[in-house]
Amino acid sequence: MTQKVALITGSSRGIGKATALRLAQEGYDIVINYARSKKSALETAEQIESFGRKALVVKANVGDTAKIKDMFAQIEEEFGRLDVFVNNAASGVQRPVMELEESHWDWTLNINSKALLFCAQEAAKLMERNGGGKIVSISSLGAIRYLENYTVVGVSKAALEALTRYLAVELAPKNIVVNAVSGGAVDTEALKHFPNREELLQEAKDKTPAGRMVEIDDMVNCVMFLLSDDSSMIRGQTIIVDGGISLLV
Ligand SMILES: NC(=O)c1ccc[n+]([C@@H]2O[C@H](COP(=O)([O-])OP(=O)(O)OC[C@H]3O[C@@H](n4cnc5c(N)ncnc54)[C@H](OP(=O)(O)O)[C@@H]3O)[C@@H](O)[C@H]2O)c1
């Protein structure tokens, strides 16, 4: 049996970490990527190793294309292959439109949108050596709806969803399947940066038609479905996991 390898960007915490652990339980060796949380990244690696899988920990700001190249060079050296790439890392500046500066735009778009293109290029080069692979990105409802203070992040996620469609077509001949999962509010550390966190959580609790908020595992379940062969005819789509909240006005 070939030992498959998965890279999950931003897997020191939150949805990325949960995805990395699930993939390790399914038998993948894991590349853990982080930008600042070294301790959490190393803890995630320990958990992965406790499942009997290998874990390569790579510090790389995915908003920096030189760091992306270095990360893939390390993956090539350590494993010589890549089968799954989960584009999960995200950051962003939460400000009203009139307070946004060029640096906020560049920071957010570089990490949330540009990274997908340049990681996908590198991932595709490794994946095609072994006959293909799967790419799933994580998006959010702000890509298609208004969310307060969310302008640059929403725009960056809209670009990510558009890029998902282009990658799906152009990487299909390499047998690489590309999709995205978009989520309603999930109570992770990411929400600490939202000025309206409490309000957002309360709204999600009160209004989600499914009767509860989206949890990390709901997102991971959908990612795992898109990484499975059961979904191989789904291409370039963004599947919304929000318990139905985006269906309301
Ligand atoms: N939470 C939500 O409500 C929600 C809803 C829908 C979609 N999402 C999406 O789900 C994904 C994960 O979100 P989360 O809530 O799990 O976030 P989180 O708990 O804040 O974790 C973010 C992860 O991304 C990493 N990261 C941040 N900037 C990075 C960079 N420049 N380079 C590499 N890694 C970087 C962080 O590592 P460091 O700590 O080392 O920086 C961390 O591992 C994101 O794409 C987010 O937009 C979240």
From TrEMBL:
It holds the Pfam family adh_short_C2. GO terms for molecular function: enoyl-[acyl-carrier-protein] reductase (NADPH) activity. It comes from the Bacteria. The keyword Oxidoreductase applies. InterPro entries: NAD(P)-bd_dom_sf, SDR_fam. Keywords: Oxidoreductase. Its EC number is 1.3.1.104. Belongs to the short-chain dehydrogenases/reductases (SDR) family. Homotetramer. NCBIfam families: PRK07231.1, PRK08063.1. This is Enoyl-[acyl-carrier-protein] reductase [NADPH] FabL. The lineage of its organism: Bacteria, Bacillati, Bacillota, Bacilli, Bacillales.
